[in-house]
């Protein structure tokens, strides 16, 4: 028997923020119209800058797939929505601004989950009333109107000033930001070294057969799944064919590859965090040093670098990372990893502060057995900067051997 839903529709205020509307253009949606759609969740992507939901909707004896765009996980958490709030197979009802094209899809405005639970503010109006309300102005389509006579930037600033400054966090469990003045000012022991600078990866060409260059040798002891993937890679490689390489389609390289790929890596060290920007597509990584607790798994945005928490043990920087995505995360050719991955890095500075010795301990019981250990080096680099880099899938498809 089909489940009957009580339509307790809610609005996510964050969806109307300039940030949310700027990422994917709002012009695609009919902002003055709202419709309700009920269906079964077939895919739920919880990832910044916004989540997405795929729904199988029964219509006239056939199944139609609807694609729904939501707000960013960071913002939705403030309204009580987490990764555990929805799963594939759930039957839900959503309130959306539909696509202008008439195709099945829309921009999320509210939802009722399978258990009847709602998130955010409830609509004061019915969906019909909302549809009749004046639609929000889309920035690119807003006609120019001259400002009031005698207007000044001071008056304009006063009109648009946030009600409270500094802007407070909307999170239900706020944590001091690593660049908050009060966090930076907390007394802390002086670190044994400072990573600030630009670092080049040491390829060790002469040691390739022993330890690998950018890859890790020897391979770990594979699980059945890990061996199946690696054997498939070998079957491609021996034929001279490219195997799956997510970065060729602009997926992030992620950890550990962001640390073990050729090209420069820029680091900026603060008392509360270390910021890293890689030449490899300008990938960004942050290591938290302010003693924070690890983010709960149901609030975390799984990604390719995981969540990295660092602390000092004598003259060694210890970084423990987990919370990785299981989507196209490659360790090296033929070795994929997933959400069970955990990485411990132990970084020491040698050669009068000019070399980083980076020891890795990696575990992933889904793909290999026990610990996979290795050591790599990065050397301080002068007269070089990390410039803007962009990964464009269209450019990569033009490369030889990419299927053209």
Topology, pairings included?
Blueprint: E1 10-11, H1 18-23, E2 35-45, E3 52-59, E4 62-69, H2 73-77, E5 91-98, E6 105-112, E7 121-122, H3 127-132, H4 153-160, H5 181-184, E8 197-201, H6 208-211, E9 221-222, H7 224-237, E10 264-269, E11 273-278, E12 284-288, E13 307-313, E14 316-322, E15 329-332, E16 335-337, E17 342-350, E18 355-363, E19 368-369, E20 371-381, H8 393-397
Parallel strand pairs: 4-6, 12-13
Antiparallel strand pairs: 1-7, 2-3, 2-5, 3-4, 5-6, 8-10, 8-20, 9-19, 10-11, 11-12, 13-14, 14-17, 15-16, 17-18, 18-20
What does this structure look like?
The protein has 404 residues and is α+β, with helices and mostly antiparallel strands. It has two domains: 10-141, Nucleic acid-binding proteins (OB fold (Dihydrolipoamide Acetyltransferase, E2P)); 197-397, Calycin beta-barrel core domain (Lipocalin, Beta Barrel). The chain is built from eight helices and 20 strands. The protein has helices at residues 18-23, 73-77, 127-132, 153-160, 181-184, 208-211, 224-237, 393-397, and strands at 10-11, 35-45, 52-59, 62-69, 91-98, 105-112, 121-122, 197-201, 221-222, 264-269, 273-278, 284-288, 307-313, 316-322, 329-332, 335-337, 342-350, 355-363, 368-369, 371-381. A nine-stranded mixed barrel has the order 8-10-11-12-13-14-17-18-20.
